Amino acid sequence: MSAAKPEGLKRSLSWSAIGYGVYMLSQIAMIMIMTRLAPLEDVARYGVALSVATIVLTFTNLNLRMGNVTDTTSIHRSGVYVATRILSTSLAMVGIAILSWIFGSDLRGVEVGLIVGVMKCAEALCDLFYSNYQKAGRMVLMARSLMLRGPIAITLFGVVLYATGDIRIALVSQIVVWWSVLLLHELPQAARLADIRPEFDLGQIRKLVVESLPLGFAGFLAAVTINSPRLIVAQILGLSEAGIYTSVSYILQAGTAFSSSVNRTIAHRLAKSFQSGNTAAFYGLIFKTAKVMGAVGIVAILLSLLGGQTFLTLAFGPEFSDQKTLFVLLCVALAGRLLIPVLQTGLMAQRRFMLFARFRFAIMILMVAACSAGAYLGGMIGVSVALMIVIFVQVVVLYVLVKGQRPPLPDPGTEGQ
C-alpha cells in the first residue's frame, strides 16, 4: 500500500472543488443537451428516475463514506466497509426497480429508471473508495475520478443522443463510462491505500450496519427532502411542468454537490478536532467554511437577478426565458442549501447520529407537506417558495444544534446527545 504524503487542507479543498466543479458542470451540460435534443417529458422521466435512485441508494449506502472517514480509530476494517457496500448496493437495485415501476408514468419511464439505477450503483461503489482517498489525504485521486466520469461521459452522451434521439441509449453510454472508471481507476487506486478486499464476515457486517443505520436513515430522509419537490411537481403538475422544473432546478443539485464535496474534505479534520476536545479548531473550521459557502450563495442570487433570463435562454432555449422568477427563487434556496452540508458535517463529526436522524425526519415531513401545498396553491412558483422557507428553517435549527453541543467526554467513542 502507498505511503504517499497526505495533502494539506488547502490542497485537498482545491482538488475537491476542482473535481466536483468539473463533474457538476458536466451534469449541468447533460441537462442542457437533454433539454435541447429530447422532449421535455423525457427530461422529466430522467428527473424522476434520478430522484428515485438517489433516495434508495442514499438509504442503502448507510453513509458508510462518512462513517469510514470519521472512524479515526479503525473500529471496522476497510474490507468490511467494502463488503457491506457491495451487498447494500445489490439490494438497492431491487428497490430502484420496484420504485421505478411505481413512479414511472409509463414503460419508457420505467426503462429510464432501471438504466439510471445501474449507472448510480457504479457511483455508489466509487463513493466508498473516495473515503479511502479522504483518510489518506489524497483528494487528487477523487478529483481525477470525477473528471473521468464527467466530461467523457457527457461527451459520449451528447453524441449518442444526437445520433439516435433516444435518451435510453444515450444513458446506457454513461453506464459504460462510469463502470469502466470504477473498475480501471477506483479499484487499483484504492487498493494502494488500504486493503479493500471484501470481508463477508456476517457478524462484522451486522455490527457495522446496526451502527450505521441511523446515518442511513438520516440520509434517506435527507434524500426524500431534497428530491420530493421534483417528484411532487411530476405527480401533481404533470411531466411537462416536471421537465421544466428538473432543468431549472438543477442549479440546486449542482450547488449541493459542490458544498457536500467541500464538507467531505473537512469531515475527517472536524472529527479529529472534536473528538480530541479541540472545539476552537472545530467551530473555527465550520464557520470559516460557512462564510465561503454563504459568499457563493450571494453571488448566485446576484447573477440570477442580473442575468437569469439570458442564462435560461442560452442554456435551455427561448421557451425557458419566462422562467426567471422560478430561477431566482431557486437561487435564493440554493444560498441556504449551501450552508446545510457544512452544519450537517459538524453534527456528524460530533457523531450525534440519532439526533441527526430525528432532525431529518422532522424536516422531511415539513418539506413534503409544504411543497405539496405549494404545488396546489401556486404551481412551480409555490413549490419553490415552500422549498426556500424549509431550507432556511433547516439552517437555523442546525446552527443551534451544532453550536449548543458541549465538549466531548474523555472517551472519544462517546456520542453526544
Runs in which pLDDT lies below 50 for 5 or more consecutive residues are: 411-417
Helix content: over 70%
Structural class: mainly alpha
SSE string, helix = H, strand = E? HHHHHHHHHHHHHHH
Strands, total number: 0
The biggest beta sheet is recorded as: none
Q: What's the pLDDT, averaged over the residues?
A: 86
- Write down the oligomeric state: single chain
Taking the alpha carbons of the first and last residues, their distance comes to 38 Å
* Rg over alpha carbons: 20 Å
Shape, principal axes of CA atoms: globular
Q: What's the number of helices?
A: 15
Summarize the structure.
With 417 residues, the protein is mainly α. It contains 15 helices and no strands.
Indicate the topology.
Blueprint: H1 9-37, H2 40-60, H3 64-69, H4 78-103, H5 107-135, H6 139-149, H7 151-164, H8 167-193, H9 202-237, H10 239-248, H11 250-275, H12 279-316, H13 324-337, H14 340-349, H15 353-403
Helix pairs in contact: 1-6, 1-7, 1-11, 2-4, 2-5, 2-9, 2-10, 4-5, 4-9, 5-8, 6-8, 7-8, 9-10, 9-15, 11-12, 11-13, 11-14, 12-13, 13-15, 14-15
Textual characterization of the structure:
With 417 residues, this protein is mainly α. 83% of the residues lie in helices and 0% in strands. It has 15 helices and no strands. The protein is globular and about 55 Å long.
Supply database-style keywords.
globular, 417 residues, 15 helices, disordered C terminus, 0% strand, mainly alpha, 83% helix
